[in-house]
Structure to design on (1029 residues):
């Protein structure tokens, strides 16, 4: 799945240019990297982490490892406790918008005025884990997960058939449980592992469940199919060899207005 | 029946490639286009059954941040009418930067109505006639007349041993409730309009939008690749027109217009509801001499119907049809159109007659069914290229064990668990299943690698893409996987193949047969210039054939080359073909393709599908619940093209009709005509708990349609008679007829029929 970056800053760029430490993650010069809290481990986390997420910043002195809650405090400490010991950094790059500044104080001012209102304390900023990938989105309070998946993340496999929790077309798995994403608020979806139909296949290789749907031709118009697939996946995780009655019960939260239930049930009965 | 063997047609292992993107979650329905890059449109709906709109005040709505535009009858009168004709009619459009804002703003629009007299009960319209207030749907009268006469009904009465009348109840009416909401997305580039709508008929949609916009076809571009069911109702193009106007109102920015689920259920067309009075003139042995029929419909469909007309050998008919056009949501096309309620009306009347004569309903039907080789009894008196209803009837009776299970209505019917057993049988010649229908033309493109690409004009909803592939592969002699669908339902690149509906109408795909024959001849001509064929003296294209993507010399099949070799170095080949219709019409080369009934090739004929059903039920006399113990559906398929698709259609259509009989039914407020059942739960759409796959037996009856390409014809949506069978099965179980009263045979109504409610 494509990664959606926070404010268009790539992790690679941020690492290369920034001279500040954000969220406990080391960025910037190798000197700072090595001096950061859990330096080597931080390096690994940096290469793995997709997003720059700024929730709470911890600023660590690269020399004595003392921790500070703000750039200002770290800056003052460096000047007073370690004059001349820190490699001069001549370029300071904002991790949010790549703007460049000649001093730390200039960067600090920029962050405070341009981003602090939108970043860490903005309740509309939500981190979603979709099919194993983290995305940072901004969502209004009333926005549903279904809407966010489709309109913000471009994951259009999930369908919105009724928008009121009756048809099941919007079904996704939340921590393995089938839910209607049209009834789940995006802001309440943080910290949950969400799985959508796009995550079933391995690239273009269909999963065994999808292959069975294809072989049995358990698809007519196809609109309800993603919802059924996710509900079926949730069922098969709990019960790998369900009977017809068990399948009928597990899939009963779905409408198929083509009335293709017979084939859909057959595709799930007995597992894959 | 022994049929010629085909390699691709009917092969159980073929597949529909459109399922692949669906399974991956990549298939794009209307809502999926331009994700995150569009504005949103919604409609306000009338809350009165009949009125003129005096004024619309959208000032408060326009003050809501994010509201971009409001459209009324003043902006686009062909989209929003000033006259309200039913409760729920869309009257104002609103465009906003997100769906939630659009919904909120709707409630801030004030409409001032001048209320007009309304009529919402069809029986009231029929009884009052011209004395009833005009609904506004027709200029001079609420009632449309549709009469038909055959033979002399008075003679039939005079010759009969018995003349007896039966009234039938109103069948159900309900909105289809398609899972995909009605919606369209449109944007403009200069004076060109681009529209995405989940339509059954992409090219038909284009024409409609052209008319809405009063522009030309080259400036309207439609895409309808996928559609979330809604058979019949997806022929509506209204949403495209709305989206186009909404986009125009915001300088061509993309607008996604969506009817919410609730609103879709309110106003979109629903299944016709019918009632009738059949007066049979009959001999004591069950031979029907005449049928005097009063037929009443809510809306369209009052005329004599195929289900009655082409099934029964009744020499004298007087048909008096009346359709009431009143202040309720329009009736019209629905899956299977009006064949299901037509079937209920005639089958219940037949079963009443059978009971009167103390006959088994099977025997009564067998005595009166039209013979296979009998032409239609009404002008133009065409013969039938494939009359499968007879074979379907016998098949379903045999497979279900009907004769051994049948008992007299209400007698010997108590099961071990105390419930009442019943069984019903039905058969009819359907209005669907034609050849070619609105298919016009097709292109088949051969590429340099010897594979083939086609484009199909119709949405993939009815396996049209798969059907087309089958014909091309079969006629070209290509491997199935060597034919791919380049695009479908895109008016910019697909010819008008299958404008109206999908494979259910164009299942015969005659356009692709002729296009494939053209392409094949051209490729064979190239092949003749290459070894080994070029070294064979006197060889012509007629001496070549193809199979498994190899072209071979028929007189010495060891002399062969691959399509790849033939096409190597050659420019791309395009085969072009137009389709034909069984009854001729505007297509060349129509009518019979092979002789039948002693008729020559080219004779105009009828060619539609036939079907038969048996349903076995258990009725709980204490609760009124009806359980379907088994249903058998035999459908005349002609030559089966896409086997998996056929089985899907028969299976799903049959289940749908059971739901029509037992669950579906709009609920109306009698005072306002308002639809109360505007949600899935209220409309009682079934779920997997209502469907037991193991009880269903699918019986495709494969035939050979002599007017169809390679013996094929469509199978309708499909043609099944489960609805009719349920009603007669309940009668067989209880000895009572359930007054369905525009709704379903739900427990309340069953108990009422039993005198317990």
């Amino acid at each position: 799945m494509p990664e959606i970056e926070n404010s268009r800053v790539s992790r690679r760029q941020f690492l290369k240019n920034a001279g500040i430490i954000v969220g406990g993650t080391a960025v910037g010069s190798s000197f700072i990297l090595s001096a950061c809290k859990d330096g080597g481990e931080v390096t690994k986390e940096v290469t793995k982490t997709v997003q720059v997420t700024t929730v709470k910043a911890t600023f660590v002195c690269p020399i004595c490892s003392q921790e500070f809650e703000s750039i200002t405090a770290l800056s003052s400490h460096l000047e007073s406790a370690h004059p001349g010991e820190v490699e001069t950094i001549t370029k300071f790059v904002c991790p949010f918008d790549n703007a460049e500044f000649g001093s730390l104080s200039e960067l600090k001012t920029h962050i405070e005025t341009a981003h602090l209102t939108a970043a860490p304390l903005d309740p509309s900023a939500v981190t979603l884990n979709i099919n194993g990938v983290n995305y940072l989105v901004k969502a209004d309070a009333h926005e549903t997960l279904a809407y966010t998946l489709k309109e913000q993340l471009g994951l259009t496999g999930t369908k919105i058939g009724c928008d009121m929790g009756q048809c099941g077309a919007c079904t996704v798995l939340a921590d393995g449980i089938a839910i209607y994403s049209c009834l789940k608020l995006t802001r309440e979806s943080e910290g949950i592992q969400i799985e959508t139909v796009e995550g079933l296949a391995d690239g273009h290789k269909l999963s065994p469940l999808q292959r069975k749907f294809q072989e049995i031709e358990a698809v007519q118009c196809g609109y309800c199919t993603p919802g059924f697939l996710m509900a079926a996946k949730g069922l098969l995780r709990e019960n790998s060899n369900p009977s017809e009655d068990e399948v009928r019960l597990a899939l009963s939260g779905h409408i198929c207005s083509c009335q293709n239930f017979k084939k859909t049930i057959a595709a799930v009965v007995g597992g894959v | 029946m022994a049929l010629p063997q085909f390699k691709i047609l009917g092969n159980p292992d073929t597949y529909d490639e459109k399922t692949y993107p669906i399974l991956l979650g990549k298939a794009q329905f209307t809502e999926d286009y331009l994700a995150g890059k569009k504005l949103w449109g919604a409609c306000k709906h009338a809350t009165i059954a009949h009125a003129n709109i005096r004024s619309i005040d959208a000032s408060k709505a326009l003050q809501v941040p994010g509201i971009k535009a409001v459209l009324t009858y003043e902006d686009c009168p062909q989209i929003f009418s000033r006259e309200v004709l039913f409760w729920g009619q869309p009257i104002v459009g609103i465009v906003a930067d997100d769906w939630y804002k659009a919904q909120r703003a709707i409630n801030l629009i004030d409409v001032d109505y001048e209320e007009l007299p309304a009529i919402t009960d069809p029986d009231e319209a029929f009884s009052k006639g011209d004395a009833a207030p005009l609904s506004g749907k027709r200029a001079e009268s609420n009632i449309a007349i549709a009469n038909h006469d055959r033979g002399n009904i008075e003679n039939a009465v005079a010759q009969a041993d018995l003349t007896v009348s039966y009234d039938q109840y109103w069948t159900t009416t309900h909105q289809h409730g398609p899972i995909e909401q009605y919606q369209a997305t449109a944007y403009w580039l200069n004076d060109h309009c681009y529209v995405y709508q989940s339509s059954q008929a992409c090219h038909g949609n284009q024409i409609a939008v052209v008319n809405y916009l009063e522009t030309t076809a080259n400036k309207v571009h439609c895409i309808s690749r996928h559609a979330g069911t809604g058979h019949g109702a997806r022929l509506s193009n209204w949403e495209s027109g709305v989206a186009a106007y909404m986009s125009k109102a915001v300088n061509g920015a993309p607008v996604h217009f969506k009817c919410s689920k609730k609103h879709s259920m309110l106003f979109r067309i629903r299944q016709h509801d019918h009632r009738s009075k059949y007066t049979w003139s009959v001999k004591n042995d069950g031979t029907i001499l005449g049928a005097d029929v009063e037929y009443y419909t809510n809306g369209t469909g009052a005329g004599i119907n195929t289900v009655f007309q082409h099934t029964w050998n009744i020499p004298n008919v007087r048909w008096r049809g009346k359709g009431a056009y009143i202040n309720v949501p329009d009736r019209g096309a629905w899956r299977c159109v009006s064949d299901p309620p037509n079937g209920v009306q005639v089958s219940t009347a037949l079963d009443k007659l059978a009971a009167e004569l103390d006959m088994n309903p099977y025997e009564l039907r067998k005595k009166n069914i039209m013979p296979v080789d009998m032409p239609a009894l009404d002008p133009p008196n065409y013969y039938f290229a494939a009359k499968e209803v007879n074979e379907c009837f016998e098949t379903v009776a045999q497979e279900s064990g009907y004769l051994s299970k049948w008992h007299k209505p209400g007698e010997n019917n108590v099961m071990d668990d105390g419930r009442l057993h019943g069984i019903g049988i039905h058969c009819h010649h359907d209005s669907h299943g034609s050849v070619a229908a609105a298919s016009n033309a097709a292109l088949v493109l051969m590429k340099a690698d010897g594979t083939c690409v086609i484009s199909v004009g119709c949405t993939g909803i009815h396996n049209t893409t798969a059907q087309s592939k089958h014909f091309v592969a079969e006629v070209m002699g290509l491997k199935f996987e060597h034919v791919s669908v380049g695009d479908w339902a895109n008016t910019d690149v697909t010819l008008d193949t299958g404008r109206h509906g999908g494979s259910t109408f164009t299942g015969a795909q005659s356009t692709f047969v002729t296009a494939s024959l053209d392409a094949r001849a051209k490729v064979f001509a190239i092949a003749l210039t290459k070894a080994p064929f070029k070294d064979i003296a006197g060889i012509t294209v007629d001496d070549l054939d193809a199979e498994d993507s190899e072209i071979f010399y028929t007189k010495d099949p060891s002399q062969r080359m691959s399509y790849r070799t033939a096409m190597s170095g050659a420019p791309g080949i395009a085969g072009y073909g137009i389709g034909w219709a069984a009854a001729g019409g505007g297509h060349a080369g129509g009518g019979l393709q092979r002789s039948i009934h002693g008729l020559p090739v080219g004779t105009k004929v009828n060619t539609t599908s036939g079907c038969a059903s048996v349903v076995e039920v258990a009725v709980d006399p204490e609760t009124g619940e009806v359980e379907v113990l088994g249903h058998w559906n035999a459908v005349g398929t002609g030559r089966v093209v896409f086997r998996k698709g056929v089985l899907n259609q028969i299976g799903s259509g049959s289940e749908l009709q059971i739901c029509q009989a037992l669950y579906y039914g709009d609920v109306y407020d009698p005072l306002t005509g308002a639809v109360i059942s505007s949600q899935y739960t209220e409309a009682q759409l079934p779920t997997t708990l209502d469907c037991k796959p193991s009880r269903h037996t699918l019986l495709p009856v494969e035939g050979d349609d002599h007017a169809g390409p390679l013996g094929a014809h469509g199978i309708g949506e499909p043609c099944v008679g489960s609805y009719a069978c349920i009603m007669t099965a309940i009668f067989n179980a209880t000895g009572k007829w359930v007054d369905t009263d525009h709704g379903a045979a739900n427990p309340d109504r069953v108990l009422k029929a039993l005198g317990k409610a």
Summary: The two ends of chain A are 25 Å apart (CA to CA).
